[in-house]
Amino acid sequence: MTSVPLHVSGMLNEMSAQYTRDIIVDAAKCTACMDCVEACKQAVAHEHKTTEPTARISIRKATAEGGINLPQLCKNCAEAPCVVACMTGCRIRDVSGWVTTDYERCVGCWMCVMTCPFGVIGAVHEDKMARKCDGCTSHEVPPCVAVCKPQALRVRSYGSFAQERRQAYSRRARVTALPG
Amino acid sequence: MRYVIIGNSYAAVGAVESIREVDRRGDIIIISDEPYRAYGRPLITYWIGGTVREDQMDYRPQHWYESNRVETMLGRKVARVEPGERQVVLEVGERVSYDRLLIATGGTPIIPPIEGVDAEGLFTMTRFDDAKAFKTWVDQDHVKAGVSIGAGLIGLSVFKAMKGIDVRLTLVELLDRVLGLAMDYESSAMIEEELARAGVEVRTSTAAEAILKDDEGRVRAVRLKGGEELACQTVVMAVGVRPNVDFLEGSGVAINRGVIVDEGMRTSIADVFAAGDVVESKNVLSGENQVIAILPIAYEHGRVAGWNIAGQDRVYPGGIPLNSLPIFELSLMTMGITLTDDRPGLDVLVHTGERVYRKLVFDGGRLVGAILVGDVAHGGVLTWLIRSQLPVMCDRQLLLKGDPLELEASRQLIAAGENSDWSREATPELPVR
């Protein structure tokens, strides 16, 4: 059996962790223009065999009673429950650091739908696919981020992610604390 | 360090992935009596039905074993474990020594002691080889009808397989409804309706008394309690599985129903760990240890066992029973405690619609169980509310109706409200680069 030098793959993993990105949701800046939703639909259309493509990002709009516009997409969990529960192995964290899905192999058992704590995996019954945001890792910038004018969606590497996320939360807390 | 893993399915894969996060140098040896690389076990019935090809069965990419430097001994059965010698003895007599051992042998199907279970044409359905043997058998021309003894998860998935190969199926169930251990009467009735629409006959509250054979020893019929005979040419025995622990006899590893482990997946013997369907682990709802033979728990066991086997000290927080099985367009999910008849004091909320049934079970301020049929929206949110046992702070109707966006918004508003004090004062606004 060939032995692959593990220190090399380990090094690569550490390097990719340094450069991989994550998408920050800065809800307080969201204007619910739905550009990201449209961009997402186009980007994922080729993965839908028989169904109309549905966006893998959705926005809960502010209502008259209050609240804020809240974009929802895959949060790319660390010990992702959807990977844990996937029986085919079609959902797996790839080298980009994103939890991605091989829809050719998804059989639609909805185990991941049953375990996603954020409810961002949708069951597409006709195509037997459990669709979720796969990070568009083949794009330099994910289409939803590219079209977001108010910069409510931003791409950041691990280095600045935590700090920016704190800021995003504090901005949102301020908005939601307003009356109305 | 030499890690030996007996078993090559979800728990074993989880363990390898954990070990390699911690220890890149040690040797990992996987011993399995199946001659395949780790495959998606529930896919075997999809394979029978023709929706999945054999080359799509692999659970991990082709290079997984090599890139994780895992040595495999496939197609070899373990006869016994000798912890004193730190050796695993194979049935062919070969000995494999270990520094740390993981037992991840899963479950083995229960075959009830009734007359005629040695008939040709009778199968169990937990391994790829079972599926292959079954397919070879039913592809013969004379096989027109099949009986599945047991209408649990395996029995129902056999029905899906049968769908693809044009064999008429009858499900025989001891309980008074299908999936009776997880589903209540209302939801079972919906499933039975769906099955009837697909031409599957369901016989509940009855037991198979004997398998009748023809002159050549092949399955001819199943005789039910009361004497009725169901003519069939194949039988699938799907009454349940039990932990596969027979080879541990004499090893000193403490076994109740499954292998007894502590919360770090250690058995009673030093340096021997166990994970997956073979162990009894904590059910967070009852607080008791029991065998919960489901896939996500097996993988999680494997992860925890893998970290600990490589020298870390992590704890498995416990799991809850979960089921998900789509029957055509009808999706089903059950989580946690779903049967409330003999449990007074639980609050039940039910939402019904056109081919939709959603039932939530609350114990005081906490969610303890759910049944979703037809509409499975944000089932995962419910699962994690049950598993974490955190108090439900949002509107219960939101959980019941299943609008994930509204629910998430409500949850985040609560979180934001809690955090608003520190976030306003403590986090200075920094310029965005």
**Strand residue content of chain A:** 15-25%
Outline type of chain A: globular
Tell me what the CATH architecture of the largest domain in chain B is.
Answer: 3-Layer(bba) Sandwich
Can you give the helix content of chain A as a percent range?
A: 25-40%
Termini separation of chain B: 47 Å
Biggest sheet details of chain B: 5 strands, parallel
Strand order of the largest sheet of chain A: 1-8
Overall helicity of chain B: 25-40%
Arithmetic mean pLDDT of chain B: 89
Protein described:
The complex is a heterodimer of chains A (180) and B (433). By secondary structure, chain A is α+β, with helices and mostly antiparallel strands. Chain A folds into two domains: 22-73 and 133-174, Alpha-Beta Plaits; 76-132, Alpha-Beta Plaits. Chain A has helices at residues 6-19, 35-44, 81-85, 111-115, 143-146, 158-177; strands at 21-25, 58-60, 70-72, 91-93, 99-101, 122-124, 129-131, 153-157. In chain A, strands 1-8 form a two-stranded antiparallel ribbon. A two-stranded antiparallel sheet of chain A has the order 2-3. Chain B is an alpha/beta fold. Chain B folds into three domains: 2-108 and 242-309, FAD/NAD(P)-binding domain (3-Layer(bba) Sandwich); 122-239, 3-Layer(bba) Sandwich (FAD/NAD(P)-binding domain), CATH 3.50.50.60; 331-418, FAD/NAD-linked reductase, C-terminal dimerisation domain (Enolase-like, domain 1, 2-Layer Sandwich). The longest helix of chain B has 23 residues, at 404-426. Chain B is globular and about 60 Å long. At the A-B interface, helix 1, strand 2, helix 3, helix 4 and helix 6 of A face helix 7, helix 8 and helix 10 of B.
In short:
The complex is a heterodimer of chains A (180) and B (433). By secondary structure, chain A is α+β, with helices and mostly antiparallel strands. Chain A has helices at 6-19, 35-44, 81-85, 111-115, 143-146, 158-177, and strands at residues 21-25, 58-60, 70-72, 91-93, 99-101, 122-124, 129-131, 153-157.
